[in-house]
Amino acid sequence: MHFLFGKAERDSKRGWFIGQFVPEEYGLRHRNDVELKWGIHPPGERRGDVWASYRTSTTISVLIKGSLRVWLRHNGKVDEVLMAEVGDYLIINPGVEHNWEAPEDAIVFTVRTPSVAGDLIETRD
Predict the structure, then answer these.
(1) Domains of the chain by start residue, with CATH
(2) Res 1 pLDDT > 90
(3) Could you give the CA distance from residue 125 to residue 123 in angstroms, rounded to a whole number?
(4) For residues 36 and 111, is the Cβ–Cβ distance under 8 A?
(5) Secondary structure of 5-57 as H, E, C letters
(6) Is residue 124 exposed (0-12), middle (13-18) or buried (19+ Cβ within 10 Å)?
(7) φ and ψ at 62, to 5 degrees?
(8) In this structure, are residues 63 and 87 in contact, taking their beta carbons and an 8 Å threshold?
(9) Which of 103, 89, 18, 84 is nearest to 59 (CA)?
(10) pLDDT tens across 12-44, in order?
(11) CB atoms closer than 10 angstroms to residue 103
(12) What is the number of other CB atoms lying within 10 angstroms of the CB of residue 36?
């Protein structure tokens, strides 16, 4: 296969549409070097009481529409970022926990690299 044309929203599972978790029979969407997400979040949607971090992967999120509040926790310190203008972006290093909430309708494009099975660490408060 030399190319693949698709639609992120239609082809996604919880927003994620490219990465190691996509079955190999889906061709070019199965990747070990990168994961892509087209996240559509209605007002009030939250990640919940579970913080996420990654052992080796870096996460880059870009706000396409709306706003997204993100909490970042590292070494006992919590920082808060409000992505509120189109084009705002956030880069999260491995080992930094994050959680989020959409104060209003939001669309966020997220890139995670590399795409590693079992890389996710979840921590409950």
Answers:
(1) 38-124 (2.60.120.10)
(2) no
(3) 7
(4) yes
(5) CCCHHHHCECCEEEECCCCHHHHHHECCCCEEEEEEECCCCECCCEEEEECCC
(6) exposed
(7) -125, 130
(8) yes
(9) 89
(10) 988 999 999 999 999 999 999 999 999 999 999
(11) 15
(12) 20
For residue 23, how many other CB atoms are within 10 A of its CB? 8
> Which residues partner with 118 through β-bridges?
none
Strand partners, 47: none
Residue 86 one-letter amino acid? V
Three-class HEC string of 60-105: EEEEEECCEEEEEEECCEEEEEEECCCCCEEEECCCCEEEEECCCC
Q: What residues are paired with 63 via a beta bridge?
A: 108
The answer, yes or no, to whether residue 46 has pLDDT greater than 90, is: yes
Q: For the sheet with 77-83, list strands across it.
A: 77-83, 68-74, 97-101, 50-54, 120-124
